[in-house]
């Protein structure tokens, strides 16, 4: 009698769970069908995106899948978009639905001015909302403090420091903290951290991760400053300065093709302080008073789907934050490493702090 009652209770519980799951499935499917139908009526979506033809090419997959929704895509540098957006708003023009670019000061100012709407409510597809699909989890992909405005779908690691092993062996130096050894005084070059740029970003990261004392001690190592990316790469590749902070990997790659700097490599192994986790151009936000909000919903769900992110990774050769799409060698983050994400809104003040410290030490 007892066993029979127990089995009935288990069966009833299973039926309830199955019913709930079916209800949830029907709920998102019903919402999606409604949004898709309304998006087709709107007929188009207006997207401001990053500069470069590759980023436009990514979106051809969306056009192929949803031919009834015309994609109006224009490329901008952040400064150009901000200037145009400001003029349009002053004229009472509301032309954009989605803005895709890296984190900039625009995000904070536009959010405060009410010129961004939460993008989170637009996410409908289960594969987009899947916690396990995103590196570090779904919520960690939001860069804003409220976790609803700026969704970073790209996660790229770049080395903080490059070292030329033709001149400095791994036995001599194999860690970021080892840079404080007095024997490296005068042998380190850096992209000038007193101004916005790669050097400032590296110093800001270490200020938040390793502390101000580490940063001050590093800046006292008689660093050589430059604001010329190519010069910094050339110094490193030719060994004039065998250690360099804030080097552009593209510049190094070009020199290596010429047979110079073949033994340049990242310093610090897989330790978190050796790498910068960045968003690149890969973050999406919903513009306030979007004229085609249903089409925008379809667009962002496609972009953040496995299909959309696979297209992003393969076409622009930049890694997705999704863990179920192909990795990009040397750029995709490693599982289990607790990277310090400098792009988060609450960490923006670190850049100003880095400039302040750099100016006080590097006089």
Structure notes:
With 363 residues, the protein is of the alpha/beta class. The protein folds into two domains: 2-155 and 279-332, D-Maltodextrin-Binding Protein, domain 2 (3-Layer(aba) Sandwich); 157-276 and 348-361, Periplasmic binding protein-like II (D-Maltodextrin-Binding Protein, domain 2, 3-Layer(aba) Sandwich). It has helices at 2-42, 53-58, 60-65, 78-90, 105-112, 126-129, 198-209, 212-219, 229-238, 249-257, 293-304, 306-316, 349-361; strands spanning 44-49, 70-75, 98-101, 116-117, 151-152, 156-159, 161-164, 188-191, 224-226, 243-245, 264-266, 275-278, 283-287. Strands 1, 2, 3, 4, 5 and 13 form a six-stranded mixed sheet that branches. Helix 9 (229-238) packs across helix 10 (249-257). The longest helix is centred in the first third of the chain and has 41 residues, at 2-42. It starts with a helix and ends with a helix. 39% of the residues are buried.
Short description:
By secondary structure, the protein is α/β, with parallel strands linked by helices. It folds into two domains: 208 residues, D-Maltodextrin-Binding Protein, domain 2, CATH 3.40.190; 134 residues, 3-Layer(aba) Sandwich (D-Maltodextrin-Binding Protein, domain 2), CATH 3.40.190.10.
